[in-house]
Amino acid sequence: MRTLDPERIEVMNYMKGTFRSDIGRDVLRGFAAAQKFIPSKYFYDAYGSQLFEEICGLPEYYQTRTELSILKRFAADIMGDCSEVDIVELGSGSNLKIRTLLDACFRSRGTEVRYVPVDVSESAVVESAAELLDSYPDLRISGIVADFTRHIEKIPVGRERLLVFFGSTIGNFLREERVCLLNNIAGLMGPDDRFLLGIDMIKPAAVLERAYNDSKGVTAEFNRNILNVLNRELQADFDPSHFDHVAFYNADEEQIEMHLRANRGIVAQIEGLGLQISMKKGETIRTEVCGKFSRESARAMAEEAGMKIDRWFADPKGWFSLVELTPADRQ
């Protein structure tokens, strides 16, 4: 991990010593459910993150390039007068998208921008920060290694903030979880803060399903890799080749679902939990939901969370949107 200038960056880690207990608790809960599941946040070990970067460049996966095109088109409008602002990115990961906002800010001299990436991976925060510090000599970074669903109060206060949540990651939460998270963010926001949220829009099922069933099989490898995470972190003995990748659009729930389907009878040991898992051929483990939105459902979600949509940015086809939200009770 690179050594960085302490005058320009600080990194606070609130995840030390908690990952093993967190994944153990989540996996116990997931395998006890009627529909077995593993939370999608465990996709992103080093190899999983590498695979996801590859997915983002695939022709079938329209989300990243479409969201990036919106950012490039509207970055100046989104940032406005950003002479002194914190840009807080939840689930930061790659810095490709945040660069569009930083470019819009640093066109003006005298800008004092602090970037606050929030991610569960310290290496991801530090490596991304190093690249940004090289590119933007006036940038300051306060990295936060944390799970933003549990440590949101660790985000620094005292300056105007633009909070950003890219990639339609909000869709990876179940409906009630989405509302809870947005409500928590609304409670965090000060009188001058704004929240920029990426949402993937409903479109023909064939387009949606192609995005999660690419012809190269990268998404399938990404999906199966979550079992390697369990094997390593919880001393499990899953054989990923004993599971097939399945992704389909559930129109009733307005979401893509990704599953791992057993292609034979499975008996697996999770020694770290003292647990034995038995599965019949054809039984599945749900690894991700990816909610899709209409304008009406996005507004309804915001309203239920105590927020309102002030501005809406979209691509010409209406395939993806960035919406700017503020607390509904703000005068």
Structure explained in plain terms:
With 331 residues, the chain is α/β, with parallel strands linked by helices. The chain has two domains: 190 residues, Vaccinia Virus protein VP39 (Rossmann fold), CATH 3.40.50; 96 residues, no CATH class. Helices cover 35% and strands 27% of the residues. The strands form three sheets. The protein has an eight-stranded mixed beta sheet, with helices on both faces. The radius of gyration is 20 Å and the shape is globular.
Give a brief rundown of this model:
The protein is an alpha/beta fold. It folds into two domains: 9-15 and 58-204 and 292-327, Rossmann fold, CATH 3.40.50.150; 35-43 and 205-291, no CATH class. Helices cover 35% and strands 27% of the residues.
The figure for the number of domains is 2
Helix and strand sequence: EHHHEHEHEEHEHHEEEEEHEE
Predict the CATH topology of the largest domain.
Rossmann fold
CATH class category label of the largest domain: Alpha Beta
Cα end-to-end separation: 45 Å
Largest sheet: 8 strands, mixed
Structural class: alpha/beta
- The strand line-up of the biggest sheet is 1-4-3-2-5-6-13-12
From the spread of the alpha carbons, the general shape counts as: globular
Percent of residues in helical segments? 25-40%
Instruction: Give the CATH H-level superfamily of the largest domain.
Output: Vaccinia Virus protein VP39
CATH architecture of the largest domain: 3-Layer(aba) Sandwich
Say how many strands there are: 13
Instruction: Report Rg.
Output: 20 Å
Low-confidence stretches: none
Count of discrete alpha- or pi-helical segments spanning 4 or more residues: 9
> Strand share of the residues?
25-35%
User: Kindly state the mean pLDDT as a whole number?
Assistant: 92
